[in-house]
Amino acid sequence: MQFLKAALASFAMLFTSAAIVAPVAQAQGANVVVIDQSRIMRESAGGKDIIAKVNQIEQNMTAELKPTGDALASEGETLEAKTANMSMEAIAADEALSQEVRDYARKAQAFNRQRQIAAAELQATERKAWSDFFTAMQGVLQEVVNEKNADVMIDRSDAIYVSESVDATNLVISKMDAKMPTVTVVRQKIQAQAPQQ
C-alpha cells in the first residue's frame, strides 16, 4: 500500500530527534527502547483491521466505477470502428458523428474525474484511519516508556544493531491489541467540483 510507506515515513519523523540522541544517550548509560513501527502496523489487530477495511472500501469503489468504465469501453470500441478509416476532416464534416465523438469525450472526461475523486477519497480514508491508530498508539508508547523506565525510544529502522532485550515491539502490539483491536474506518467523501466550461 502506497500510503502505508508514506505513513511510516511521517510517523518515523516523530522519532528523528530520538535517533540522533540515541548514540549519545547510550554512551551515557541511558535506557533505550526500540520498536518496529512497520511490524506494529502490519501485525497488530488494529493495523490488520485497517488494512482489511481499506481494501474492502477500495473493492467497493472499483465495483461502483466498473459499470461506467465497461460502458465507456464498449462505446469507445464502437466509435473507433465507425471512425477507423475516416480522416479528422471527414469526422468533422459528419455533424452527427462529430457530436457523438464530443459526447464520448465529455463522458470519458467525467469518468476520469470520478476515478480521481475515488483515488483521493481512498487516500483520505486511509490517512484518517492511520491517524486514529497513531493517536491511540501515542498513549501506548508512553506506557511502554514508563514501564521500561526508558530515556529514549527509537524505531528499529533507525538503528544499526538492536539487541532483542531492548525491542519492545511485541509489548506495544499486545497493548495496542487490547486498546484498539478494531478501528472505525469510514470512507471520506470529497466534494466534486463542477467541471469548467
UniProtKB/TrEMBL annotation:
UniProt KW Signal keyword: yes
Pfam family, one: OmpH
Record GO biological process: protein stabilization
Keywords recorded for this protein, A-Z: Signal
GO cellular component terms, semicolon-separated: cytosol
SUPFAM superfamilies according to UniProt: OmpH-like (SSF111384)
This protein's record includes keyword Cytoplasm: no
Signal peptide boundaries: 1-21
GO molecular function annotation: unfolded protein binding
Listed PANTHER family: CHAPERONE PROTEIN SKP (PTHR35089)
The family this protein is said to belong to: Belongs to the Skp family.
Protein name in the entry: OmpH family outer membrane protein
Organism per entry: Henriciella mobilis
